[in-house]
Amino acid sequence: MNKVVVHALLEDAAYQHSTVPVTSGTHTFDYAQVYTRSVRLANCLESLGVRPGCVVGVMDINSHRYLELKYALSMLGAIIHPINFRLSPQDVLFTMQHAQDEWLFIWDGFGELGATVSKSIPHTVWMSDITVHEGGLEYESLIDEGKFQMPRAASHVRPEDIYSIFYTTGTTGQPKGLRYSHQQMLMGSLQIAHHLALHDTGATLSAQDVMMPLIPFFHIHGWGTPFVAPYLGTPLILPERSNALEQISLIQRHGVTWINMVPTQLFMLLEAAQSAGVQDLPLKILTGGSPMAMGLARRAAQFHMTFSMIYGGSDQLGSAISTAAGLTGDDRIKQLSTHMMPFPMVRMEVRTATGDLVNADGQSLGELWVQSPWLPDGYLDNPEQSQQTYINGWFRSGDLAIRYPDGSISVVDRMRDAIKSGGEWIASSTIESILSEVPGVKSVAVIAVPDAQWGERPKAIVEASPSVTESILREFLRQAVKQGQLAKFAVPDVFQFIHQMPVTSAGKINKAALRTQ
Amino acid sequence: MNKVVVHALLEDAAYQHSTVPVTSGTHTFDYAQVYTRSVRLANCLESLGVRPGCVVGVMDINSHRYLELKYALSMLGAIIHPINFRLSPQDVLFTMQHAQDEWLFIWDGFGELGATVSKSIPHTVWMSDITVHEGGLEYESLIDEGKFQMPRAASHVRPEDIYSIFYTTGTTGQPKGLRYSHQQMLMGSLQIAHHLALHDTGATLSAQDVMMPLIPFFHIHGWGTPFVAPYLGTPLILPERSNALEQISLIQRHGVTWINMVPTQLFMLLEAAQSAGVQDLPLKILTGGSPMAMGLARRAAQFHMTFSMIYGGSDQLGSAISTAAGLTGDDRIKQLSTHMMPFPMVRMEVRTATGDLVNADGQSLGELWVQSPWLPDGYLDNPEQSQQTYINGWFRSGDLAIRYPDGSISVVDRMRDAIKSGGEWIASSTIESILSEVPGVKSVAVIAVPDAQWGERPKAIVEASPSVTESILREFLRQAVKQGQLAKFAVPDVFQFIHQMPVTSAGKINKAALRTQ
């Protein structure tokens, strides 16, 4: 490539890694074919009037078509809006209006939501292997009609042009829109691969891996995997809509070695493996989005999985990944669960409320501030939130963190999830991590409840099998206090058992919902 | 960092890797100290009138001062011109005039050359541990006088601003000037580290390595090592002026694990190791600039060294490094000597004279064309050469190459070094590689001599111990032909023995000199 624009990546892969396979459902292509299809699609869309700067919504599972769209829209200088279909229908429509989507590419498996959403927009293209729909265009027909000739717009696309817009999940209020240029999106994505390769991690990546992204493409473009795979020339397995058992089958069939997913997905994968009698799944896993419970981490190790945690988000892209140079056994697992090393080019500072740096002593708590070359300017059409969050070239994360002498960082809580008791921070994640190791506990959330004397006090909400009682949980915490893992004042006052933990569209525990219950 | 400019790298390292050591001669600093000294220097130079865009020549061995200047000049938005002091004095002065150097920073160990050169320029700063010179300023005094306060210019430096100018060695005519922006210089340098980390190579790099650059900083900034080391946070050992024996001592004392050097330096290092009775030097070596003779490669393996070859140059930066996924033993050594894999983002095409792609069959020869995001626009003030070399976003390398089915490339010769005999290319390097394995042979060069019947025919020029005779060489080649390593018509007609092979300032065999002899 001579310009750092998204479609140049696929063009390079089509030349350098032409025969490397890209598998999606029952389809198997190679990078040369994916490129050809993307060019044809872009060519046809240009003739249909898709112009540079046009915003195109995409609502799809992780498929080859989604992959192609990420490149075809780049060739057109159009802006891709990966729609988070796990948001409420109102929020889905809100993000489409807010982003000013002019076109919608939609998989035909969304049922009622798909029908509702498609009515809201002038141009709809249906993505399916079956080719009959009322109203709208057919994806495969567009490819058939397009010529294998780069759209005229392609050579004018510049690294600084906006490539994508996407939204926060909006656990506190309406989703907020972020826009990233080609250069920002690629730097933020590729730096994940570089960091993983340069460090001793549990998800170390090389050109010899076989990648399967389980993080949905609507979530920060699947953490950059659709860009990293062609960049490295690795085979790419796209899981489409699949359950954990089907994912295990894909892993075994295609020799998948590297996966990304949130801890909840990992839990489901392990449950499925166990029920299917699979004892060995030697995978490298990049996980994040919520803390990794030690119980889950140890269980993954029994399946010969290794993992690292990534820290980042829609409003900063990736910033840090856990490393564990030279460590083995349980020490390694603990370190990989917690110690994030900033990517090269990323600065992370842990600051007090007055802006001073907290000591890098592995204990002092403060707010995490992040700086990187791929930070956005702010939220789209939201000057107030932007001003509060993007300050002098820094991103104010709202996360409570610790810095260690070696420069690594532990994010212990969202500031709003942490409990401030008697002037001291209590990190909900610390208590959650300990309780998750109690046999029979499936899920734990610790939230703050108002307290007249202390300001706030922690309350534990637990999903567990019937054998688990409050006194068992209290005994576990008493031992943790004894071993120095937990301050005595951090032991929750109240324990509540529930049948099913509420989760957000991103698969995280929905603490906002728990607080209002 | 929030902008991809050179000095932001050191600023990050001073924060993230503050206590990691940088050793130079008898001095040991850490990244925080190197940063402090660089800021003080830049601050003082700003007060002395060094403005953005000002060209500053630096003539120094690989020292901490050279390292500091690379960052201090970035902070000022000035342009660093690393002067190749191995050029002839006339050429040194030519490059300084051509680049329009306004300041000169010069080590006081260059003797007469230093005195001559320093007279040619208005502002001279002497770099030394001793602080008495007639005329000019003293480097350490500038640091003492400067405040620890970023120069005002620093925040205005942009990624697209010119960071550096340097020159080709000019084996064919006058040195040609190349200018690179901050972004180009950093991308081209860091992509070396990324490629090494992502692939199975003989010089795989990680954040756990200890780096010692033996490639001089005047040569493409030591192949980017002064940028890569702080980026990774690895210790950096700067060899200053040292002979091979002293280098071995540095390696052992500081636990050096990663070195770059040309094959000639490797040869000298192995000779020194052998004479000193050192049997084990487990180093990862990035080498290039001239072919790696198999004899040298096998000898390095006996010392437990591993290596990879880099392909690149002043007029393209780095473009490819040899890889050897899954290979072991002699197969691995052979592959690492020859099979270059383009960096991600680099396109390499092997084309016929009429511009068609040659078959990727591992045999067909053609000219290598290179495309990358860090290519320069052209040579400085040299529109004619620029037009012939930089064509439609491609760099026309003038190298004769082969492409393999796996996408790797072998550069077999400079086009001008290859022999065209009866319409067929003969690569001089193939013959040189075979003859270098004859016991007693120290150095071989094969050049073209005019021939009435065939157009050109190969002639071998050999530096060897007295025991080596022409009939021994001929017998070796006869065996190589028998084993299919060499075409019969490629066997040289004439063998000439010489006492000492002439070399260029870059340590390569000077074939131009051999041709005129």
UniProtKB/TrEMBL annotation, chains A, B:
Q: Where is the AMP-dependent synthetase/ligase domain?
A: 12-380
Which InterPro entries does UniProt cross-reference here? AMP-bd_C (IPR025110), AMP-bd_C_sf (IPR045851), AMP-binding_CS (IPR020845), AMP-dep_synth/lig_dom (IPR000873), ANL_N_sf (IPR042099), ATP-dep_AMP-bd_enzyme (IPR050237)
Q: Which Gene3D superfamilies match?
A: 3.30.300.30, N-terminal domain of ligase-like (3.40.50.12780)
Q: Which SUPFAM superfamilies match?
A: Acetyl-CoA synthetase-like (SSF56801)
**What domain of life is recorded for the organism?**
Bacteria
Q: Which Pfam families match?
A: AMP-binding, AMP-binding_C
Q: Which residue numbers delimit the AMP-binding enzyme C-terminal domain?
A: 431-508
Check the record and name the PANTHER family matching this protein.
LONG-CHAIN-FATTY-ACID--COA LIGASE, MEDIUM-CHAIN-FATTY-ACID--COA LIGASE
Q: What is this protein called?
A: AMP-dependent synthetase
